[in-house]
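Workshop exercise sheet. Pairs work together: one partner reads the sequence aloud, the other fills in the structure field after running the prediction. Swap roles for the next sheet.
Pair: D.N. / O.F.
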Amino acid sequence: MVVGVLSVLLAIILPTVKTVRAAALNKKAQAEATALAQAAIRYKNEYGFWPGQLKEKDDVTVELRPAFKNLPDAFVPAIISGPKSFTDALQVTGNPVYLNDNEVYQSFRRIGRKEGSLFKANPLNPKGIHFIDLAEEHEPLRANYLDPWGRSYILFMGLNPRSTFTHTITSASGGSQLVRVDNAIAFAFSYGPDGNLSTNYLYSAGVRK
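Structure field:
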């Protein structure tokens, strides 16, 4: 009799527990996607480039990634970061630049290469600013930021033509150039619990669908 009562109670409670847990994970994913988008915008405002536009040249200097070197002045297209299997299938107007997510996360790292028992400063984040809580931050090629289901977030940067940003690029010869960059908005999303089988993505705050 006791076993029967317990079975009935479990049959009632378990679906509710699963629903509550699923809702909590969805909410967490949306909060983390928002944090990622805000981190990208903050990085852009702080350093003048979107995370991932630059790469380490050596321990103390950086340079533009090849994908950005030959772009027309005052133009940076949409930058899309995420798993290659997903970004390759995207249909985006214009000529976006695709990055893998690790290239973005390398910009957020507060520490650079290891020298002996110590870590140097990261030239991509020379001020050592905490933008977001990365996993594997001490490993440049493994630094990541995964959703509650262990998958990478998709990050879009530079999609709002109403916003502008200007910064100065200094060349190796010592000359400088003021560049106006249109599109200063970013957003991110998670696949959700169903992975790439789903189209019900969990977006960062502020996205109008």
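Discussion prompt: DSSP finds four helices and eleven strands in the chain. What would you look at next?
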